[in-house]
Design brief:
The protein has one domain: Methane Monooxygenase Hydroxylase, Chain G, domain 1, CATH 1.20.58.480. The protein has 13 helices and no strands. The termini are far apart.
Length: 279
């Protein structure tokens, strides 16, 4: 490649890319666009593959942003953390919009290639599991689908060994209200986060005096916003699956719609939702 700087303001649109980085080079498009491998001759299988591949790309970005947000919180860099949380919410808005495209696939369309999926299922997405683990919905049993890929299981185990993002938020909440020596509840490392009355009481203190605790209030609302979009994504998943396969068992062996409906009751930041009835 040449080191000569290209100035589009002076030279206009570049038409020759011999020895220079092109759009396709930068994005690795040849490799990316070669990753769709339909297993049947069904027209809609390409839609199904691209829907899930693009979702995994968005989840990769969400994990990147959540990791940086957790680091920023620990460093007290609230401005950048708020920006990252807002971005994660928008990522889940994008994921929600993608269901509208998949819902153009009818049950008849799906049955033409469903057997080609074998036992594969979105239930096995390690990135989705990582997002849940980072946010605080932790279940060590969900490591088992990844036993066959040791490095992925190791990454998930490493996440379970450290405080979740919400554990870090609770620590920040306590230290902000009670001082640097506050007695913070122990992190809930290997169980889904369950509501703690003492944590809810502190969030209530924040919401009853917003002007005094504006940063904490903004943090609470950013988390509610994120979970709101996350819940909508789960709900859209349920309705899409019900629309396409009804109440059949999922390809990965789950109960399908019934399993997904149970997931709708999961709360990531329960104290922030429960306190609203106390205000």
């Amino acid at each position: 490649m040449t080191d000569d700087a290209y100035d589009p303001g002076k030279e206009g649109a570049r038409m020759s890319f011999a020895g220079a980085m092109s759009y396709g080079d930068y994005l690795g498009l040849d490799g990316l666009l070669a990753q769709q491998h339909p297993q049947s001759g069904a027209h809609d299988e390409l839609l199904f593959i691209i829907q899930h591949q693009t979702s995994e790309l968005w989840m990769k970005l969400a994990i990147h942003e959540l990791g940086a947000a957790r680091d920023a919180l620990r460093e007290g860099d609230m401005a950048h953390m708020f920006k990252m949380l807002a971005r994660v919410s928008r990522i889940f808005e994008q994921l929600n919009n993608a269901w509208d495209v998949l819902r153009t696939m009818t049950p008849a369309d799906y049955t033409r290639f469903r057997e080609a999926l074998g036992p594969s299922s979105g239930f096995q997405s390690w990135q989705y599991r990582m997002i849940e683990f980072v946010l605080g919905n932790r279940n060590p049993n969900m490591l088992r689908p990844h036993d066959h890929v040791p490095d992925i299981r190791a990454r998930l185990e490493a996440e379970l060994a450290r405080p979740s993002f919400y554990d870090e938020v609770i620590g920040f909440l306590y230290r902000s209200l009670d001082g640097p020596d506050a007695r913070v509840p122990a992190p809930q490392l290997t169980t889904p986060h369950h509501a703690l009355p003492e944590v809810q009481a502190r969030w209530k203190q924040v919401y009853e005096d917003v002007d005094r605790h504006w940063t904490l209030y903004e943090l609470g609302e950013k988390l509610v916003d994120l979970e709101d979009y996350f819940r909508r994504w789960r709900f859209n998943h349920v309705t899409t699956v019900e629309r396409v396969i009804g109440f059949k068992r999922g390809t990965g062996g789950t109960s399908g719609v019934q399993y997904l409906r149970r997931m709708l009751s999961v709360e990531l930041f329960p104290e922030l939702w429960h306190l609203r009835g106390d205000l």
